[in-house]
Amino acid sequence: MSPRHFLTLNDLSSSEFRDIIQRACELKEMQADGILHEPLKNRIMAMVFEKASTRTRVSFEAGMAQLGGHALFLSPQDTQLGRGEPIEDTARVLARMTDAIMVRTFAHEKIERMADASTVPVINALTDDYHPCQLLADMQTYFEHRGDIQGQSVCWVGDGNNMCNSFINAAALLDFELIVACPEGYEPMAELVKTNKDRVKIVRRPEEGVVGAALVATDVWASMGQEDERVRREKDFTGFEVTLELMALAKDDALFLHCLPAHRGEEVSANVIDAPDSVVWDEAENRLHAQKALMEFLMC
Ligand code: CP
Ligand code: NVA
After folding, report:
1. Is residue 135 in contact with ligand 1, taking CB distance under 6 Å?
2. What distance in Å separates the CA atoms of residue 46 and residue 60, rounded to the nearest whole number?
3. Do domains 9-130+287-299 and 134-283 have the same CATH topology?
4. How confident is the model at residue 299 (pLDDT cuts 50, 70, 90)?
5. In the 3-class helix/strand/coil scheme, how is 166-191 assigned residue by residue?
6. What are the two backbone dihedrals, phi and then psi, of residue 200, each rounded to the nearest 5 degrees?
7. What superfamily does domain 9-130+287-299 belong to in CATH?
8. Among 45, 49, 71, 263, which residue carries the largest CB count within 10 Å?
9. What's the CA gap between 138 and 283, in Å, rounded?
10. Between helices 55-66 and 280-299, what is the axis angle to 10°?
C-alpha cells in the first residue's frame, strides 16, 4: 500500500485540514505546559534541503525531537544527490532507513517522483509551485486570533508564487474567497485559478483587492531561484507594497501574514510587519506546532 504523502494541501480533505489546525493548537498548549508527548519515539525523518531555510529546518528538527524522534539534515553538497544520484534511488534508500522524508526542492515534479518511489510519507517543505506546510501554520494563526476563516475574504498582494498557489488550495479547502492582487505576468498557476474560479479573483490594484479583507498576506517579490530577476521584479512590483495605508482599506481587525523572510520597504513596510500587534512571529512559531500535528497525522 502506498503511504500517505503531503505534497500539496489537496492531499488533505477539508476536515483533515481543520483537524490538523486544531491538533496544532492542542500541541502548542501541551508544549507550553511542559507536557511530554513522544508518539514518534525512535522514529527518524530525513530532511532533504536543496534550497536555503531557517524556519522550516528548525521547526521540523525541533518538532521531531519534541515528538521523541530524530531528524537528519541532508543537503546536495554533502550527499550523492549533488553528484547526480537519481532522486528515485535516493528516495528508495532513504525510505529503507527512515520513517518519513521531508523535501525542499525546485521543480515540483521532482518531489512527485520521490513520492512515487518512496515507501514512507514524503512531505513538501517548499517547491517552486507550492508551500503547503506554511499554509498549515498560516491558517492556524488566523484561527487562533480570529476564529474560523470560512466565508471571509482574503487578499494576496504581490507575486502569484508558491505561497499564493497554496493559498488558493487553502481557500478551496477552508471555503474562503481569495483576491489575488498581482501585476500582469505574475499570476498564480492558471490551472488552479481556473479550477477555483468561483472563489479566486485576480485584480491589478492592491487598493481594490484588500477592501473588506479579513486577512492580507504577501511574500517576497523574488523567490529562491529567481535571484537573477530581482531588479526587473522590483520595478514590476512598484505599488505592491503592503503599507499601513493599504491595511487601512481592509477590515478594521484585518490580520497581516508573511511567511518570512521579509524585505522591509519592498513587499511590506516596516511599520506593518513590526507593528506591536503583528502576528507574523506567531505565524513563524506555528510552523513548529502545525508540522508536529502533520507528522503525527502522517506517521502515527
Ligand atoms: N517561511 C519559510 O519557509 O521560511 P524558511 O525559508 O526560513 O524555511
Ligand atoms: N516564495 C518564497 C517563500 C520562502 C519561504 C520562496 O520560494 O523563496
Report:
1. no
2. 10
3. yes
4. very high
5. HHHHHHHHHCCEEEEECCCCCCCCHH
6. -115, 125
7. Aspartate/ornithine carbamoyltransferase (3.40.50.1370)
8. 45
9. 6
10. 50
Our mutation pick for probing the ligand 2 site, out of 57, 182, 237, 259, counting the most ligand atoms within 8 A of Cβ, is 259
Q: Is 131 a catalytic residue?
A: yes
> Does residue 43 have an active-site annotation?
no
- Asked whether the CA dihedral 30, 33, 38, 40 is positive or negative, the reply is positive
Q: How far is the CA of 65 from the centre of ligand 1 (A)?
A: 19
Residue 194 has pLDDT above 80, yes or no: yes
134-283, what's its fold? Rossmann fold (3.40.50)
> Dihedral of the CA atoms 188, 194, 198, 200 (nearest 10)?
10
pLDDT in tens, 111-134: 999 999 999 999 999 999 999 999
Is 5 tagged catalytic? no
Q: Whose CA is nearest to atom 6 of ligand 1?
A: 53
The answer to whether residues 123 and 144 touch, using CB atoms and an 8 Å cutoff, is no
User: What's the distance, CA 253 to chain centroid?
Assistant: 23
Which of 144, 99, 82, 116 minimizes the C-alpha distance to 295? 99
Its pTM surpasses 0.85: yes
Among candidate residues 5, 43, 104, 258, the one labeled active-site is: 104
Backbone angles phi, psi at 5, to 5 degrees: -100, 165
- Per-residue confidence band for 99, with pLDDT thresholds at 50, 70 and 90: very high
Length of the chain: 300
Domain regions of the chain by residue span: 9-130+287-299, 134-283
* pLDDT band (50, 70, 90) for residue 1: confident
- Which alpha helices (H) appear in the chain, and where do they start and end? 14-32, 55-66, 87-97, 108-117, 132-146, 162-174, 190-195, 206-209, 230-236, 244-247, 270-273, 280-299
